[in-house]
Amino acid sequence: MKKSLMLYLFLLAILMNIFTYMFYSREVKFGQERYEKTTKKLRDSINLVSTQLSEADYFSLAHNENAQNYFDNSASGGKVILYEKLIPVVTEKLLDLNSNPNGNPYTGQDKIDNKKFIINKVKILNHRWIIADYSNGQLWGEVLLKYFVNDDESIDFEVNQSLLYQK
Questions:
Q1: Is 145 within 8 Å of 129 (Cβ atoms)?
Q2: Digitized pLDDT (tens) for each residue of the chain, 167 residues in all
Q3: Which residues cross the membrane (predicted)?
Q4: Of the candidates 133, 166, 128, 130, which has an alpha carbon nearest to the alpha carbon of residue 145?
Q5: How far apart, in whole angstroms, are the C-alpha atoms of residue 56 and residue 49?
Q6: How far is Cα of residue 97 from the mean position of the Cα atoms in its chain?
């Protein structure tokens, strides 16, 4: 009886070891598969976001080599204007006009209900065009501007078209 009890306990211990081994080996395999799936999903998400960012920046002076080359006049003995420095300067000059008591003149809108229109966001599309978002706190709109960099490095703006959205 004692030998059979020991034999049963021994077999039970072996079975417990086998089940434990199988459980942990499958748990490791499951963890690796989950890690691989998560990594693949994250890589796909990163690729998607990168593609969307690339598409969003397609119309941007920072990513348009032809527009950047427009500011390189070194072949004709002229000056080279670095677009990396030009973008913040043009943006700042346009936003500085928001301090005008009648509002930014390049929104293409006059005051409405004694509220002036100011430019909120600016995107420089290429060597000639800017798109900007403006509002007066109640109404919003967008404006397409032309800009010119003069020989004396001053910047001129011209409203091409302005759109005011309905309430």
A1: yes
A2: 778 888 888 889 999 999 888 888 888 889 899 999 999 999 999 999 999 988 888 888 888 888 888 887 655 556 777 888 889 999 999 999 999 998 999 998 888 888 999 999 999 999 899 999 999 989 999 999 999 988 888 899 999 999 999 87
A3: 6-24
A4: 130
A5: 10
A6: 26
